[in-house]
Amino acid sequence: xxxxxxLTLIDHDGVTHHFDEPFKRIISLYPAHxxxxxxxxxxxxxxxxxxxxxxPASILEKPRFSxxxxxxxxxxxxxxxxxxxxxxxxxxxxLVKKLEEFGITVISLQPTSGPELYSYWNLLGMISGYRSExxxxxxxxxxRLMELxxxxxxxxxxxxxxxxxxxxxSRMKTFSPQAIAIFCLESAGGINVAADAVPRNNTNxxxxxxxxxxxxxxxxxxxxxxxxxxxxxTVDDIVSESGFAAIKAVSNNRVYLIEENLxxxxxxxxxxxxxxxxxxxFQTMIN
Length: 287
What we know:
The protein has two domains: 7-136, Rossmann fold, CATH 3.40.50; 156-285, Rossmann fold, CATH 3.40.50.1980. By secondary structure, the chain is of the alpha/beta class. The strands form three sheets. Strands 8, 9, 10, 11, 12 and 13 form a six-stranded mixed sheet that branches. A five-stranded parallel sheet has the order 5-4-3-6-7, with helices on both faces. It has a two-stranded antiparallel ribbon with strand order 1-2. It has helices at residues 31-39, 71-76, 86-91, 93-101, 117-128, 131-153, 180-187, 210-215, 235-239, 248-251, 270-282, and strands spanning 7-10, 16-19, 26-28, 46-50, 64-65, 81-84, 105-108, 162-168, 173-175, 191-192, 205-207, 222-227, 255-259. A hairpin with a 5-residue loop joins β1 (7-10) and β2 (16-19). The chain is 35% helix and 18% strand. It is globular.
């Protein structure tokens, strides 16, 4: 059941928002916002979604919007709130400014680490008026994560596989050690061999380079790569990469792909990604 209450919220761009009741006409410009709102039962508050939204199927017929659209298109839809992420405020600051001048609340949210997931989901619940449902969603995620943790903790750290987690193959990039994808990897029982990676501009992606990857060649038990819009890659592409034959995981046929949305998009489907990674990491240990 929806709840109404006054709230002061500071978003991820440091902007303070005050509102006396939940928003009822929300446009989401980030697929994670959309998916999370739908999961907590707030579909009816969504009057528009982003051009990148692809899940769940139940909302794919809703009107589509992009930060490249005109101010007039947004105003014509009569939203009371537009949910964005920091990249959009940086890339389309003029659009955001004009929308705010028109009286539309523009809230920027994007968790950048595992521990931030719960507060992010809670904020979405507050914004939409589905706070108790958001809390329940978080609790179900916690329970499944605890179940996985118990399984992982039964394996001594010395027996856990060392993993290189690829973010973008063409640029030889991995993930920031604090990124949600690494949270997924470590929660699944993997040890990140690129823990020394340094992100640029506070992003979740970090340049690593082929030379540094190959410096770990004989300690990479598993080579894992996200697969999706950010990294259109195949196992063959990785295996045939010049110099990669020296990597232990390549010679042992332990190169795997994981769907990008299951490790990088901050939704409860992350737990599905974690369980899939766990199965890949420890499948040789299964009797």
